Amino acid sequence: MTNQTTQRPLVDSFGRHVTYLRVSVTDRCDFRCTYCMAEDMVFLPKSEVLSFEEIQEVISAFVRRGVRKVRLTGGEPLVRRDIIKLIEALSERHLGQGELDELTLTTNGSQLAKHAARLVELGIRRVNVSLDTLDGEKFTAITRRGRLPQVLDGIYAARDAGLSVKLNMVAIRDVNEDEILPMLEWAHSEGFELTLIEEMPLGDVTFDRADTHLSLRTVRDRLAERFTLTPIAKRTGGPARYMRVEQTGGTIGFITPLSHNFCESCNRVRLTSTGQLYMCLGQDDRVDLRAALREGGSEGLDAALDRAMILKPKGHDFVIERRSAPAVGRHMSVTGG
Predict the structure, then answer these.
(1) How many angstroms separate the CA atoms of 78 and 80, rounded?
(2) Which of 68, 119, 148, 242 could be a cystine partner for 101, CB 3.0 to 4.6 Å?
(3) pLDDT at 196
(4) Measuring CA to CA, how many Å separate 264 from each of 268, 309, 313?
(5) Which tens digit of pLDDT belongs to each residue from 124-140?
(6) Residues 291-325: tens digit of each pLDDT
(7) Cβ neighbours of residue 42 under 8 Å, at least 6 residues apart?
(8) What is the CB neighbour count within 10 angstroms for residue 129?
(9) DSSP labels for 176-240?
(10) Where are the alpha helices (DSSP H) in 3-124?
């Protein structure tokens, strides 16, 4: 039971209720995935990043306005110094009081082994882990860092600690498309869910995205030749559409920002580590919540959230075309996906 009365809910110009906030706690990461950031990525000075106290204040403002789910992202959230202290505070203040239905995070898995047990103690019930391949050489090529065994150890540690694990796999043509079927079989045999994601045109990279884009419609048709896929009503607050794989008993999700737009039901906004609120992953409209908080306190935040609802667009304009510029210039690591 919540101990507070929800203030006026966050409803955009198209009648969509925003109930899901994704918070990037850092732009830093211990990997350099090719589709997510540049190899020579320049990270923000720590002075520009929101403090834990400021993150808590912003999240509290959203909770007062009806947000029920918060996901911590990065970069890699678990590389931020003392991140567990932030999670402890959010757990006590919001999960413990019934003000949030869920506090969760998306991670690359590299730091999970050391943190999994404590996350469970703090009320985290599930995590999303980015994993695009089980091939060590491909993993090194995609992440530009390697350490696949460390990631797998983290995934198993999370499961053994009692966390539900969903694997997020970006489908990349001619890179890992031949691994999708074996990844599904392995994931379901280990008790993990799998969600496939189309590559999104965010930020300048060293390759032409038209060469690597793989439509998940094509992937789903291929999987349907091998498995019986039954649509299910499962919803986790995000954009994925889920199907049950009858032969394995597991579920597979599809996030399809290009081949099947999901904007009509968008209930999400994204906060960067510097306090910029993006109302759409595929648009550049943003509201500076750091300035609103520092200059106007809680009233300033509320006014900024009202402005954000007016600015939230109807949808993104993702297009994959040869020689086209990225849909937006910022890299995926800035907003955490």
Answers:
(1) 5
(2) 68
(3) 96
(4) 11, 15, 11
(5) 999 999 999 999 999 99
(6) 999 999 999 999 999 999 999 988 755 444 534 44
(7) none
(8) 23
(9) TGGGHHHHHHHHHHTT-EEEEEE---BS--SS-HHHHB--HHHHHHHHHHHS-EEE-----SSS-
(10) 52-64, 83-90, 112-121
Give the rounded percent of residues in the chain with a pLDDT score beyond 90: 67
Query: What stretches of 235-329 show up as alpha helix (H) in DSSP?
Result: 289-311
Mean pLDDT rounded to a whole number for the chain: 87
Q: What are 60-74's pLDDT values in tens digits?
A: 999 999 999 999 999
Determine the Cα–Cα distance for residues 230 and 50; give it in Å rounded to an integer.
Answer: 43
Structure tokens at 21: 């906030």
Closest to 117 in 3D by CA, of 142, 154, 172, 152? 154
Q: In what order do the strands lie in the sheet with 164-171?
A: 229-231, 241-245, 250-255, 193-198, 164-171, 126-130, 102-107, 69-73, 20-24, 268-271, 276-278, 286-288
CA–CA distance, 10 with 117 (Å, rounded to integer): 34
Closest listed residue to residue 131, CA positions, set 204, 180, 73: 180
Tokens standing for residue 260: 């099947």
Task: Please provide the distance, in angstroms rounded to a whole number, between the alpha carbons at the two ends of the chain.
Answer: 31
Residue 285 or residue 186, greater confidence: 186
Helix/strand/coil for 331: coil
